[in-house]
Design a protein that fits this description.
Layout (H helix, E strand, L loop, with lengths): L1 H20 L3 H17 L1 H8 L5 H12 L6 H12 L6 H15 L2 E8 L5 H15 L2 E8 L6 E6 L2 E6 H18 L1
Parallel strand pairs: 1-2
Antiparallel strand pairs: 1-3, 3-4
Amino acid sequence: MEQIQALSKPYSEALFDLAKKHNLLHQLEEELQAFFTLLQQQESIRIFFEAPHIPASEKIQVIQRTFQKTQASSLFLNFLKVLAQNRRFSLFPSILQQYKALLDKEEGRLHVKAITARKTEEDVIQKITQTVQQKTGKTVILDHKVQPDILGGMILQIEDTQINGSVRQRLDTWKKILMEKRYEI
């Protein structure tokens, strides 16, 4: 996974920089997302573009014919051609994910995951969102997940930081402390 992200990074960064330069950030995101959806829905298309035995020239012809009468940006089309030429279509999902992350960063958005043992009231979710927004100064997009095995409390994941206030975590900590004390006697 790390290798795929490392290979995707130059593509996503270059694509983002060009889209920003040409004021196409959102249009390109929509085009990339639409193409990604197509690849997910039509496995034969994904297989065609990822197939190593199909020449890049044939893939480029398909791209040109397919998008000939559409409103697709030249940046998007050229990007697909570069992926075909470099045989990197398998990186497309990772490139899209990284492009979206760059766009979120550019626009001051922060994705936060809140995990609770049961469904949480909407006013509590709003309060969490507001608190994180105040602390970070960014627009928070909160994803709430229910995970009964944490028993109670909440786990917040903000970028690379995890704040674990779950009952399961506290019980595990107490268990560890008690087990250590038992062996010291």
